[in-house]
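#struct-pred

JT: dropping the chains for the assembly here, can someone run the whole complex?
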Amino acid sequence: MRTSLPIAVAFISGLVLVVAFFFRDDSLIGSLRQEFIVWLTIIGGFTLLLGVVSIVRVSWTAVKRRKEGWFYKILTLLGVFAMAIPAVLPVSWSPLFGRSDGTIYDWLFNYMQSPMMSTMFATLAFYIASAAHRAFRARSAEATILLITACAIMLWRIPMGEAMLNMIPGDLPSWLNTYVMGGANMAVQRGIIIGAALGAASMSLRIILGIERMYMGKG
Amino acid sequence: MSGWEIFQVWLVAFLTLALFSFMYKDNPIYRIAEHIFAGLTAGYQVGLIWDTIILQQVWVPMTSGQWWVVIPGILGMLMFTRFSSKYSWVSRSSLAFVMGATAGIFLISELHGRVLPQIQDTMVSLSGEGGFGATMLSIIIVIGVISTLIYFYFSKEHKGALGVTARVGIWFIMISFGAHFGYTVMGRVSLLIGRMQFLIEDWIGSFI
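RK: done, full complex below.
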């Protein structure tokens, strides 16, 4: 029961979505497919909530047991509740509740979450530069190819760099666009996509047939 | 600028500088901002799921007669049994539905929507109909795809012809990674410019 029911559920849900591909959307199985996709979105949403509940539990336990850095966990909890509670309270109670413009949720997003997210990604610019420095110190042919391509692309994508590249005879920006981006880069992306897609398809088949059961965990 | 607007600018400036302070070293100010950010991001997800999933996809359809949406609602709720060591097995069926349905979608979409079109686009005529440039491009793509696939083929040792092809594959991969690296740096630097513009124009500009 504990193992066979989930395997049966995975088999039936997977099979319906595979078989439905060969039928029209307005057929019975086509409708079932549409319904299953909605169900998938709903359960997926709950799965994300599970993650949030997990963060709250871990943070609360750390605060309760006065673990190292418990003070910071209070800030995490405050952040979660400050953003979540006004968002779920009915708009009829106050115009500050809900998710539309001018709400607490909207203000916290615009003046705290969004700027911090941009800053986090901007910080990565420095770490990328540091990683590049280490990568390019490896004086191999591969590292040199990577360095030359990266520099050429970065120059090409800024107006001053493009003007500099245009000074070199042979229309280098157009060559970069055609042969590097549309040629070598596209070929590698295609190779990776084909390989990854074949891997994903075979893994999907293993899940549907009940061979792959890692998602069930232990017990 | 009103008092409230000044407060908003100073708050964003504080949070921005607090996060940038990590570049010097890990410090309490950075950790305060980091934990606030983690909490707000989790809270943002709650608001989003509440509105787009629970209200719009469960509550509204259910109250308008589509009673069967209660099934995924219950399956979703069962996910929370994972927090109980005794009943965590109950969540397996919900997870199995997600895994099975996702696998069903992927099996078709990956093969029909990605593998076949990519192979079809790679197998193009090399007869030179589009001119020398187009033929060269097609040759580059064919060699690049085959050598990349061979580089990622680990069932046989990369020796002899296989080794040479895999070596060509590495060069192609390095060109592609270089291009991606360049684009990533550009993206991150443009974000950095945005933050710097805010600090210089909005924040410093507010008191000069």
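JT: nice. Chain B has a mean pLDDT of 92. Chain B touches chain A through 116 residues (CB under 8 Å).
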